[in-house]
Write a structure and sequence with these properties.
Structural class: alpha/beta
Radius of gyration: 20 Å
Shape: globular
Helix content: 25-40%
Largest sheet: 8 strands, parallel, barrel
């Protein structure tokens, strides 16, 4: 593990019940957590994107607010559901934010997980007749998005202004942003597909596979197959691989109350997502020495260069920064972590 960031789902409520906060408070607290994490040395602030739900949705304003108040932390997503996006407009927004933030944007993109709305992308104006999950549309949009991010000339220019045969790229263009785009992979086959596209791989918080192997073993197979496919494709740069984990160092009595007592004996879980048997990772909670040994034994954690810590954002700014500080002070250094003061995170060996 070279780097770690936090991954927030951005949950909120209506704000009408006592001590329940709404969207405004959730967004403001997300910015405050990002600012505090930057000061701790955390490498990344990432947000899950869901639509038609009381959670983080359109990420660019939030990422821009965090980037404007920080100087080192990477800002990004895990993941944007491509089914809901205009790929060229997303490319414009991403490039503009990347330039404004001094190349600190890292966007995780995918087909997305199940949403509350039934075929909600159709309400956004998009349709896919090839399947109920719109996976084909998501990949086609992603290909167009990547072309734009890479500066390809996609639109014919007005011949009266430019003469015949001229083509235009999407502006602005941020060189190098394409090497900070990730595809969220839920299977080993999808990981191989991501490698073929020449993008980083963000292993999902759940895998739509259940073979009897542990979550970490399934992810390790996914990572190994991704890196083999990357090498076979002949790309000329080293990609990054991330995994997500729920990790809670037990330092105080409050930590034990929230996570220590409830997590004892917890293991991976099997469930049904999108009609497929899926594997969910377990929660790691314990004293720092115990966590270090447990995480060293996690085969996917050991192979990834970046780890995303899922945080309980509903517990407020102070407690979430306490979790990040505890991990940074008592666990991460023993696992190879370098804080954001050491510079941008680089890819691992292929």
């Amino acid at each position: 593990m070279k780097a770690f960031g936090f991954l927030s789902f951005g949950h909120y409520g209506s704000g009408s019940a006592p001590e329940e906060y709404g969207a405004k408070e959730a967004l403001q607290q997300a910015v405050d957590i990002g600012v505090g994490a930057d000061e701790i040395g955390v490498n990344g602030a990432y947000f899950r994107v869901h639509h038609f739900a009381e959670q983080a949705a359109s990420p660019m304003p939030l990422l821009a607010a965090i980037a404007a108040k920080t100087s080192r932390i990477e800002v990004g997503t895990g993941v944007i559901d491509m089914r809901y996006e205009n790929p060229l407009y997303l490319a414009e927004e991403a490039a503009a934010l990347d330039l404004l933030s001094d190349q600190r944007v890292a966007l995780g993109i995918s087909r997305g997980s199940p949403e509350p709305a039934d075929r909600g992308w159709e309400a956004f104006g998009y349709s896919d007749n090839d399947g109920a999950k719109a996976a084909h549309m998501a990949r086609a949009k992603f290909a167009l998005f990547l072309s734009a991010i890479r500066g390809e000339e996609l639109a014919p220019a007005d011949p009266q202004q430019f003469g015949p045969g001229k083509r235009l790229r999407v502006e602005p263009h941020s060189p190098g942003l394409d090497q900070r785009i990730w595809w969220g992979a839920g299977t080993a086959a999808t990981a191989e597909w991501a490698a073929a596209q020449g993008v980083n791989m963000m292993s999902s918080t759940l895998l739509t596979e259940a073979t009897g192997a542990s979550f970490g073993e399934l992810q390790r197979d996914q990572i190994d197959r991704y890196r083999a496919a990357w090498k076979a494709a002949g790309h000329d740069w080293a990609p990054r691989v991330s995994v997500s984990r729920s990790i809670f160092p037990i330092i105080t009595n409050l930590d034990d109350l929230y996570f220590g007592r409830r997590s004892r004996g917890e293991d991976d879980q099997i469930g049904i997502i999108d009609g497929a048997r899926s594997t969910f990772g377990k929660t790691y909670a314990g004293e720092p020495d115990h966590l270090i040994e447990a995480l060293k034994a996690d085969p996917a954690f050991e192979a990834a260069d970046t780890v995303l810590l899922t945080i309980p954002s509903q517990l407020g700014v102070d407690y979430n920064l306490h979790i990040l500080e505890s991990f940074a002070s008592h666990v991460a250094p023993a696992l190879g972590w370098k804080p954001n003061t050491a510079g941008p995170v680089s890819g691992g060996h292929v």
